[in-house]
């Protein structure tokens, strides 16, 4: 959904921007190779699209990752193990959130850091929970069902885990740190309500992170990945990002080499077509 708005990109961020955009470009270029999910066939430090898609499929096998449900716990422990095997440091941020209905949700943000001592940092983030109800489905019969979350949830996590693979194989330059943040409780509450209202049940993990920033933060900039697994992927300019970080938006789109809303912007997640439209 939404991410904390990063500051405008200062001149000293050029090196960081190059790395980040390279990662994104590699996602586009190397994802098209044939082969299974084993990760072979790409160079060290390159993003492996097929392997990342395997991470999407693995999440789907847990079932919907709804806070408070066993599948949510299991998926979280699986992600934590993946990150601990790849990152220099992994911090678990435990959040007890009381919903408007009085239920206490036990949520976890996972904050995986590469070169945690580096002062200059970039942040990539995604949410890993899924919506309890497909309340925006055009099919009325589906609105009480949970969202499977192949696109809305798993796709962003899959991309970030692929980035973790790339950074593990080829760490960033010594002066640059990269953080991967997997936020929880992002899509829990009423999608029509004001997410920034007091006691809101959406954007829980992101708001908690923004209120408890790590020492040395904010990063140079942040890029959020969500819903990047549609069959016919169209990515649009995001209005908040355009308003608060237009230079970052421009850099991302220059890297992609494609215009927003173009039908050519797929990142090789075509197999997501097998999931319901409410994903
Ligand atoms: Zn989402």
From TrEMBL:
<protein>
    <submittedName>
        <fullName>M28 family peptidase</fullName>
    </submittedName>
</protein>
<keyword id="KW-0012">Acyltransferase</keyword>
<dbReference type="GO" id="GO:0016603">
    <property type="term" value="F:glutaminyl-peptide cyclotransferase activity"/>
</dbReference>
<dbReference type="InterPro" id="IPR007484">
    <property type="entry name" value="Peptidase_M28"/>
</dbReference>
<dbReference type="InterPro" id="IPR040234">
    <property type="entry name" value="QC/QCL"/>
</dbReference>
<keyword id="KW-0808">Transferase</keyword>
<dbReference type="Pfam" id="PF04389">
    <property type="entry name" value="Peptidase_M28"/>
</dbReference>
<dbReference type="GO" id="GO:0008270">
    <property type="term" value="F:zinc ion binding"/>
</dbReference>
<feature type="domain" description="Peptidase M28">
    <location>
        <begin position="109"/>
        <end position="243"/>
    </location>
</feature>
